[in-house]
Write a structure and sequence with these properties.
Length: 196
């Protein structure tokens, strides 16, 4: 393997941008309404609480999709990272991932009374999720105090980003059809002794 950094990191950035934008945009939306005093007006409107939550959730997903599209184009045309997967499956995955991140953002926003608290809460949750996912650093090199944290949290996040790269490179194929490029390896499978 030739360890091309761009081929590993740029597809991960699509997921990281969607994740952080989903957290921040939805996290700030309800906190802003609460600060301005208009959230009570929303609650007495004819809209149901589900419709209000969806109205706050969908814009974050749309922003995540827009930024994912921009970064996909920059990755392919600007940096030459080949995209061989299915565009439809990639967008479905980004949308579902943005919905999940937006749900976390709504939870953070419900616990915050100001926009500043929501912003800090989004970064307090988002940054450890990204750092423990294996998207930036190899999971095997992160020192954990508990095997439960390593196996249950970090491995799930690493698999999530690995799934994103699978959509990027193979179009979501499974089994023997889902062959990644031959130079591509998962960071968590590499140990320092292998690099020497």
């Amino acid at each position: 393997p030739n360890f091309e950094f761009q081929w590993f990191f740029l597809p991960n950035l699509i997921g990281m941008l969607s994740f952080m934008l989903g957290l921040v945009v939805t996290g700030l939306s309800i906190a802003r309404e609460r600060e301005a005093g208009t959230f009570d007006q929303l609650l007495v409107s004819p809209a149901t609480p589900t419709e209000i939550a969806l109205a706050k959730l969908i814009p974050g997903c749309v922003v995540g999709l827009a930024h994912g599209t921009i970064f996909l184009l920059v990755s392919v045309f600007g940096f030459g990272v080949p995209f061989t997967g299915s565009v439809v499956l990639l967008y479905v995955a980004i949308f579902i991932f943005s919905l999940a991140a937006g749900g976390i953002g709504l939870m953070i926003s419900s616990l915050s009374s100001t926009q500043q608290q929501a912003f800090l809460g989004a970064f307090t949750v988002g940054v450890p999720c990204i750092l423990l996912s294996g998207a930036v650093t190899p999971v095997i090199n992160i020192i954990f105090q508990s095997d439960v944290v390593e196996e249950e949290v970090a491995e799930k996040l690493a698999d999530l980003f690995h799934s994103g790269r699978t959509f990027y490179y193979t179009g979501g194929k499974v089994g023997k059809e889902a062959q990644e490029p031959p130079h591509f390896i998962r960071y968590k499978e590499v140990e320092w002794k292998d690099l020497e």
